[in-house]
Amino acid sequence: MLEIGSIVDGKYKILNKIGQGGMSIVYLAMNERANKPWAIKEIRKDGVSNYEVVKQNLIAETDILKRLNHPNLPSIIDVIDCEDTFLIVMDYIEGKPLSEALNREGAQPQEKVIEWAKQICDVLGYLHSRVPPIIYRDMKPSNVMLKPDGNIMIIDFGTAREYKSASLADTTCLGTQGYAAPEQFGGQGQTDARTDIYCLGATLYHLITGHNPCMPPYEMYPIRQWNPNLSSGLEEIILKCTQKNPNDRYQSCAELMYALEHYGELDHEYKVKQNRKWRTFLATSILTVVSLAVCVGFKVAETSTTKSSYTQYLKNAVSAGTIEERIENYKSAIYLNPGEAQGYIDLLNKAFLDDDNFTQDEAAKMTEILGYKGSGNRTCESYLEADKEAYDDFAFQMGLAYYYYYEGSGNQQMSQAWFDIASASDTLDSNKVERAKRLGRIAGYYANLHSSNKAGDSTTTYKDYWKDLTELVSGNLVEMDNVKTALVMYNEVVYQIGQNPLSFKAAGVTSEELTAQLDKTQSRLETDIIVLNESDRTDIENLKEKILGNIDWARTQVNIAYTDRGTDINSKTGGTKDAGTGEND
């Protein structure tokens, strides 16, 4: 046990103990040189009968967290192997676990639970989109930290694992009984993304009802049996999450996220109201015809005023002094005329993507705006959908925002949902439709490359992945779109070559094919990337340099993979996934 006041590794001063579990103690420490607090988890090597299991869980937790980059996940800074203990130095998370809120207050407010659910769903979606996917497997209130700003952090990766398609029955009693899915116990099958969806559903059940699924009656009833005032839509979501058969649950976090964002539309009361509106339609139609002649003059004046105010909000946004003012003006324009597309497009491109980074908060704001209901009790998104051409274009741009610009290394699952809309469009430019199809397929690969069907056959291969990657960057991308989009697409294919050469090799892709694509990309950078606007020159040149550096790194990785030098090249440092910000994946 570490002594309070002692110095660890010559730089971390132990301040006090802040937590203790079955196999570890967590301390608050201070790096006095940097004046920054850290958390240090101490795991003793002796005194545990299942030391090898503990050791493997520890190794899994540290290995996984080192490779992740998400605002709702802690970062590991250092791992210190002492004589009697392992010490893990990680981000200090200010806040309390949701289990404490349950113990102190009981059932939590519905709106808060839904907001937490969206954040957790976003984290799980990020984990599942890694290659290979990471299955968390131990979602429960005590593993979710609530920070003072209202955001959450997911902790404790001791039971997480990377998805292995060959493992038919991988789990015996890993997870927490009551929250864990049936397939996590007794060798009942492979855990996958749907396992985490079950655990999240059980966690939401506990948070919204205050009844612990680990305690009697050991069953999860429809939540409105505990509180009739709760949303029937949320009840439906939790019931679907916690189905015993994984095939009956939501099949991805993207599906679940959509349901959470539209839970009100699943409410029984909402459906009844829609039916009532339809029954009154005929009666109101007659009244409308009679009133039309009187109203038309007023309507012309009202439309003119609305259009004028809408345009003014857009102008105010452009001249706004702060990003917050800009967002508020775009939001006001959208709420004034939710069927007009320009406000949404400008909000996305001129406010949220102004710094080439689509943050979690910005994504949440966009979701909130799309789901906002005015006096007509229709969401803004439903108004925009009425203009199919505008909605399809917006969907395409939202897909790009999630795929390329979402903080960390992208949110491929959320991008896929928007690309699916764009790829079905009959109004978009054919180049955009084709790109949406390819990007949607590639986004799907992030979750499917390592999954298998019931017969044990892979549902997709790296050969398929390679074909779509190369098609994605065929032709002159600058002419087809623009310089910035071309650069991020070139960086994507280069990064994937450098990150996955062993997998491409196993799928039958030759080293000559990989090298030829790198040569072609380098040539495109030299011939197609022309700066027309001097104000963009520095940014574009910096992006080119980063991609050229990635090309050199990728060539090295390919050479190692195809000459059999080393067996774990993907663990080597290199390659910048985010060509815009330089963040490593």
From TrEMBL:
Binding-site residues, ATP = K41
Q: Which InterPro entries match?
A: Kinase-like_dom_sf, Prot_kinase_dom, Protein_kinase_ATP_BS, Ser/Thr_kinase_AS
For the region Disordered, give the residue spans: 566-585
Q: Which branch of life, at top level?
A: Bacteria
What GO molecular functions are on record for this protein? ATP binding; protein serine/threonine kinase activity
Q: What name does the UniProt record give this protein?
A: Serine/threonine-protein kinase
Q: What does the UniProt keyword field contain?
A: ATP-binding, Kinase, Nucleotide-binding, Transferase
- Which PROSITE patterns does its entry note? PROTEIN_KINASE_ATP, PROTEIN_KINASE_DOM, PROTEIN_KINASE_ST
UniProt key word Cell wall biogenesis/degradation: no
Please list the residue ranges annotated as the Protein kinase domain.
Answer: 12-271
